[in-house]
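Let us practice reading a record.
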Amino acid sequence: MGDMDPRPSEEHIRRARKLVAVLLPALREVAHRHGYALALHGSVERDVDILAAPWRDGATGAPGLMAALFTATEAVMGYATWSGGWTERETFAPPLGSLPNPTVKPHGRLGYSILIGGGPYLDISVMPCVILAPVKPKKRKRAK
């Protein structure tokens, strides 16, 4: 890998894909209990991009879902922090320069980063729970 190559090392990519194999089944189970479906997105090279979509009425809000996913990640991996090394148990604010959790994304998504040591990390986008009014089908005009 050259100095200008933006791709992570092959070892980093291998660890990212191993992380998916180890962690994703547990995260999907937790998300299901909170009314969400999880989808893997992206190359799974530098980080693990996950999309959480509300799947049933009464789905938990994003903060509740993310608290449960964080707890599951910590339980499976033995260690997890929010972006910048900050955990909810800390008595101080996240470090300056760390990404806020959540980060507001297009279309109302909320982005969260969960770090697991110094390697690949989880980048989770949670779609908003919205309630739409039912759409009535348009009546078709009969051809004469």
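A brief commentary: The mean pLDDT is 85.
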